[in-house]
Amino acid sequence: MITMPGHSFSGILSQLSIEEREISQHLNKHVHTLAEKIGERNLWHYKELTAAATYIDTTLLELGYTVSQHEFRVNGKTVTNIEVERTGSTLPDEIVIVGAHYDSVIGSPGADDNATGVAAVLELARLLANTTFTRTIRFVSFVNEEPPFFQTDDMGSVVYARRSHSRNENIVAMLAIETIGYYSDAKGSQHYPVPFSLFYPNTGDFIAFVGNIDSLGLVHRTVASFRSHTNFPSEGIAVPGWITGIGWSDHWAFWKNGYQALMITDTAPFRYPYYHTAEDTPNNIDYDRTARVVSGIARVIAELATL
Fold it and tell me: How far apart are CA 221 and CA 174, in angstroms?
């Protein structure tokens, strides 16, 4: 459950590749647009929530995708999950979902949580836009992940996952990208729920892949893939979903509907000092390290979507 295939990268990071520099620039633009130009976005800042949805929609249209909007009503207002896909060539009914939530918690502009996740999904959609894989890849932006909707019937990913289950969709993997933009080289910068500090590093310089017991196979495949081609520190875990922090994102909704799913995260409050505060702003994000992670995730998705 805590022993993962391969070895986490250690040592000095190489210079960014040309592609990674481009990814970094795009991530910077997306995060600044969502967390600075638009700002706090949720049902209580409904104009900003719809502005974020429009930005995501427009960006995907510019990449050449056909955008599907899944609307539903919450507290008398219409909210939207946003989806695009690359249809698989030979196994189109086997689906890999890559998702992130675009709302922010009340009182926060939500740069790391979760403009970084949305920016990553948009960049992954760009990076994979012109390639067809064996399986179908869906890129989904979810609404209403934050409290008071978290793990309720009004959570966007809950609505989406239930819809998929009712349609008997064969989702073979779901990756929730959640708070991936903050890193520290300082000893003691990383914390954990008890007892994980006994097994994992106390320096917050890594990306984490987090799943429940039923998703152990997916966690292993994902970590093995990432470590095989990406020189960036990484950790993985698959433990019971009731443990603190393990189910803290949209992957939880897919677990509840019988799908294997995991979260990709910088571990949020266990590392990031500005989590769920007004100081969760774009200037706190490390765009270059995040670009390395996103580049690695792109290669992971390509492998998950290929047989």
Answer: 12
Burial 87-112 (b: 16+ CB within 10 A, else e): ebeebeebbbbbbbbbbbbeebbbbb
Class of domain 18-304: alpha beta
Q: Is the peptide bond before 202 cis (omega within 30 degrees of 0)?
A: no
Token pair, residue 92, equals 């189109």
Query: CA 172, CA 96: separation in Å to the nearest integer?
Result: 6
Q: In terms of C-beta density within 10 A (0-12 exposed, 13-18 middle, 19 or more buried), how is residue 198 classed?
A: exposed
Tens-place pLDDT, residues 102-116: 999 999 999 999 999
Whether the pLDDT of residue 1 is over 80: the answer is no
3-state secondary structure of 28: helix
Beta bridge partner(s), residue 178? 265
CA–CA dist 49, 97 (Å, integer)? 22
User: What burial class does residue 81 get, using C-beta atoms within 10 Å of its C-beta: 0-12 exposed, 13-18 middle, 19+ buried?
Assistant: buried
Q: What is the mean pLDDT of the chain?
A: 97
Q: Answer whether 77's CB lies under 8 Å from 46's CB.
A: yes
pLDDT of residue 105: 98
Tokens of 203: 């320096």
pLDDT band of residue 198 (cuts 50, 70, 90) is confident
Confidence of residue 193 (pLDDT cuts 50, 70, 90): confident
Q: What is the mean pLDDT of residues 248-255?
A: 98
All residues at 6 or more sequence positions from 300 whose CB lies less than 8 Å from its CB, including other chains: 175, 222, 225, 226
What lies within 8 Å, CB to CB, of 190 at 6+ separation is 184, 200, 201, 202, 203, 204, 267, 270, 271
How far apart CA 152 and CA 155 sit, in angstroms, is: 6
